[in-house]
Design goal:
The two termini are about 25 Å apart. This protein is an alpha+beta fold. The protein has a domain of about 60 residues.
Length: about 110
């Protein structure tokens, strides 16, 4: 069985998640979603200017208080029922699948 993996760093206030682009969902493969939430103490900042992804990640790990939790969501299989029920979410099947996945992640 093939799966489509979508990796996206999401900036959110806890109420809104940006919409996904349809290209990642174009294949209509089953989607396995993982949510990783990272909370850290914002009172301590290490600023070293513009850096690459590795240095930015290492800087983030330098915080004194980091709390992480993981949510392992079930595999979402796109079905004709899903596309019929949520046809108001988009014109193409890949748009509908992307919006359904985004709404599930928002709900969790």
């Amino acid at each position: 069985m093939s799966f489509s993996f979508i990796s996206r760093e999401i900036t959110t206030t806890g109420k809104h998640i940006l919409k996904y682009k349809k290209g990642a969902f174009y294949s209509l493969l089953p989607i396995k979603s993982e949510i990783i939430n990272i909370y850290h103490n914002d009172d301590y900042h290490v600023s070293i200017g513009a850096t690459n992804v590795v240095m930015s990640s290492l800087r983030s790990l330098a915080y004194f208080n980091i709390n992480m939790y993981f949510v392992d969501l079930p595999i979402i299989n796109p079905t004709d029922y899903m596309f019929e029920k949520y046809k108001n979410l988009g014109n193409e099947k890949c748009e509908i699948l992307a919006e359904v996945i985004r709404r599930i992640i928002c709900e969790v």
